[in-house]
Amino acid sequence: MGKGDGDNAVMGAEVGEMKKPIRVAVTGAAGNIGYALLWRIASGDCFGTNQPIALQLLEIPPGMQRLEGVMMELKDSAFPLVHGIVGTDDPQIAFEGADAIFLVGSRPRTKDMDRSDLVAANGPIFVGQGKAIDAVASPDVRVITVGNPCNTNALIACANAPSIPSRQFTAMTRLDQNRAVGQIAERAGVPASKIHDVFIWGNHSNTMYPDPRFATVDGKMATELFEDEWFQGPFLDTVATRGKEIIVARGASSAASAASAAIDHMRDWWQGSNGRIVSVALPSEGWYGVPEGLVFSFPCRCENGDVVVVEDLPVDTFAQSKIDENVAALLEERAAVSELLG
Ligand code: NAX
User: Fold this and answer.
1) Active site includes 204?
2) What is the DSSP string of 219-239?
3) Whether the CB of 175 sits within 6 Å of ligand 1
4) Is 205 a pocket residue for ligand 1 (Cβ < 6 Å)?
């Protein structure tokens, strides 16, 4: 199956009006996040309402029957932008010619697992998927890693795809950002749209740091409205532990909000962030003293299809201590998977 070709496995493929269809791959497509994500992609929320797409969905064999059901429902939704749907358990088919890839599928953490068990259980998945991306995806592919531990999984996939520039591999900290925005908006009594330029440093884990120092609330500096004690105490704690709180309340992990954040991340990358600062975890080029190659969340702007790190923000003592804490955690994760880095 070549880029833009038809294929027996493609249902209802028709290439034509509007723009040329792009190929969008989603792994773990029959999972909880997949169920929310696919409908947002298909409706045009991510790549634009004039951008047709072909969906290429990956599952593991035990997930294939559930994936069949998801594909039936996608067909039944009759999305005008969807020009084809492929479901497969072969990464080489799922990533063939892919222009955008959402790496969602991985083993969720269970009660008996600590973070190092999670790294060990999921790391190997991203070796195979990185190699497949290297072999068959579009050379311009943009990859977002959602499956946890997402920073280190992105690092593994990137290391196993040497022909693709490392800046095309990212991990998602946008959910942490959105959680931070939600907290500030609620306290200020304004809609989330009034909050700009809150962003996340570091790892998608409870060490991440939601930096409020440049945030604005309806044009006013957030730090003039609310005290440091709140930002460094309850605000930080709420954002850091929100995932756990949701599991307790809902009996299941965040899914719709995670899918929504993945849409925000890829939409801004694809269409631009309109000058706003957003959080993207990407392989460090030494920015802010973060060791080269670590997949670390930085303040970024998205413009002309690229993610550009905002390099000149001042860092105070508290922010530096949080950056250092995240560097240490990510160095430890990198050491734990060193044999998977090619
Ligand atoms: P689910 O368990 O509902 O779905 C995961 C799906 O992935 C399953 O259908 C499974 O069969 C499939 N899968 C497993 N291994 C695969 C492989 N090698 N190739 C393709 N598919 C595979 O989990 P869900 O709630 O959808 O969460 C998915 C991942 O997102 C988890 O790792 C989770 O920890 C992570 N999250 C990341 C977040 C972030 O902010 N970065 C937040 C939400 C979420 O916790």
Assistant:
1) yes
2) TEEHHHHS-HHHIIIIIHHHH
3) yes
4) no
Q: Which of 67, 146, 297 to mutate to test the pocket of ligand 1 (most atoms within 8 A of CB)?
A: 146
Which class in CATH covers the domain with range 17-171? Answer: alpha beta
Q: In angstroms, how far is CA 341 from the centroid of its own chain?
A: 20
The kind and range of the H/E element at 38 are helix 32-42
127 CA to centre of own chain: 18
Q: Specify the fold of 174-340.
A: L-2-Hydroxyisocaproate Dehydrogenase; Chain A, domain 2 (3.90.110)
Phi, psi of 81 (to 5 degrees): -80, -15
Ligand 1 atom nearest to 255, measured from its CA: 25
Domain range list for the chain: 17-171, 174-340
The residue whose two tokens read 């604005």 is 216
With a 6 Å cutoff on the Cβ, whether 341 touches ligand 1 is no
| Cis, bond preceding 149 (omega within 30 deg of 0) | yes
Cis geometry, peptide bond prior to residue 91 (ω within 30 degrees of 0) = no
299 lines ligand 1 (CB under 6 A): no
pLDDT digits (tens, 9 = 90+) for 84-116: 999 999 999 999 999 999 999 998 777 677 778
Which residue has a Cα nearest atom 32 of ligand 1? 147
> pLDDT tens digits, residue range 284-335?
999 999 999 999 999 999 999 999 999 999 999 999 999 999 999 999 999 9
